[in-house]
Amino acid sequence: MGTSAQQICDVVGIGFGPSNLSLAIALEEHRANSPAHPVTAEFFERQPAFGWHRNMLLPSTTMQVSFLKDLATFRNPVSRFSFVSYLHATGRLANFVNTQTFFPTRHQFHQYLEWAESSLADRVTYNASVTRIGLPPEGFSGASPYLQVEVRNGDGSGTRLVKARNVAISTGLVPRLPEGVQCDERVWHSSEFLEKFRRMAPDELKRVAVVGAGQSAAEITRFLYDSLPHAQVSAIIPSYGYSVADDTPFANQVFDASAVDDYYFGTARTREAFWHYHKNTNYSVVDDEVIRDLHRRSYDEEVSGVKRLHFLNLTRVNEVKRVGHETRVLMESLLDNGSQELDVDALVFASGYDAMEPSGLLGDLDRYCLRDAAGRHRVERDYRLVTTPELPCGIYLQGGTEHTHGLSSSLLSNIAVRSGEIADSIVEGRARSEWVTTP
């Protein structure tokens, strides 16, 4: 495990989902425009192959953002990596236009991401987990400062160190479960839904329940109802039914690139207003079409007199335990504080995600990173962690910046512009420092 003869990369990307894929595209387009000054980059992804929310690629589900908010268009409208370029390359442009929609299916958008990734596959190593970012042995006293990125190969073949002047952390959101709940073969988080569902025989699933009030919860409830025609399906909803997502034109401006400036440079009162008035654009809300689909199924049951779909509104899960081959859900009604038990063959928590937290990867480096009064990392406008002068290298966050950059920080909506800003910052930083390319 050595680095003595190794070139120093301009940037190492940790994770290779859509965010760092978009960054790789921005860097590739910089190379094409400035071939004499290419930015060297290497990416590492712990998954064995590219994938983005594969376990939520339910049939006929659509994107919640316009196809124009792809990996590149808002940064470079003529990019060869745009969704329109993908449609043209696959011979689907005319037919897609004929659908008269801004919102492709989630399955097709995943195909687009895979298509874009295929052109950059030589930049990424899969089945490789970054375990630590550390200081070089000599500290930052050398002529060319760099960080050491420790990478563990998933095949067990060992660990290696990679030198990087900058790192871009994009390890994704962390699935959230209620306290005390653990996943098993009968208790699932939505992030593993399709994989776990496909392992089960349909006749094993006679009673199923879904916990949550957001888009994933509603989509999974609809999918289970349609896929298991003889099963009882219960939706355990902490609110008084599903609330519709506000995707109207003025509300959608909160996801514009200019809104990031308004949030970042705004006062504490400004930021509070963003969340107070516009949280219903994305959090614990559901598309109108999915809500109407579920209500239609529920009403049809009233007409037919056969009831399979049950909505437990204003209900909170207090405990989950195994009873024989079944899972018992202990619930509390927020209407009357009454208790209720429900035995199910499968329980799905669509309980959301927590933001990416980089401290575990940073280890000792975290002491060089400054925090705000609430203990959160301070972040520059270009998504670079604010550090003490002793740390000259850049650590960029692709996620975990909602407190500094607003609602779009973990979403696709601003991905192209965000990645472009990070790429520009890396390029400009290299020019200012006049780094050499060898240690």
CATH superfamily of the largest domain: FAD/NAD(P)-binding domain
What is the CA-CA span between the terminal residues? 17 Å
Which CATH top level class of the largest domain fits? Alpha Beta
The structure class reads: alpha/beta
How would you describe the overall organization of this protein?
It is a single chain. With 439 residues, this protein is an alpha/beta fold. The chain folds into three domains: 11-173 and 355-433, FAD/NAD(P)-binding domain (3-Layer(bba) Sandwich), CATH 3.50.50; 176-245 and 283-352, 3-Layer(bba) Sandwich (FAD/NAD(P)-binding domain), CATH 3.50.50; 249-281, no CATH class. Helices cover 29% and strands 20% of the residues. It is built from 13 helices and 18 strands. It has helices at 18-33, 83-89, 93-98, 106-118, 193-199, 215-227, 249-252, 257-264, 268-278, 288-304, 359-362, 402-405, 415-433, and strands at residues 11-14, 41-45, 124-126, 128-134, 147-153, 159-164, 166-169, 174-175, 187-189, 207-211, 232-236, 309-312, 315-323, 326-333, 339-344, 346-349, 353-354, 394-397. The strands form five sheets. It has a five-stranded parallel β-sheet, with helices on one face. A five-stranded parallel β-sheet has the order 9-16-10-11-12. The longest helix has 19 residues, at 415-433. The model is unreliable at 1-5 and 435-439 (pLDDT under 50).
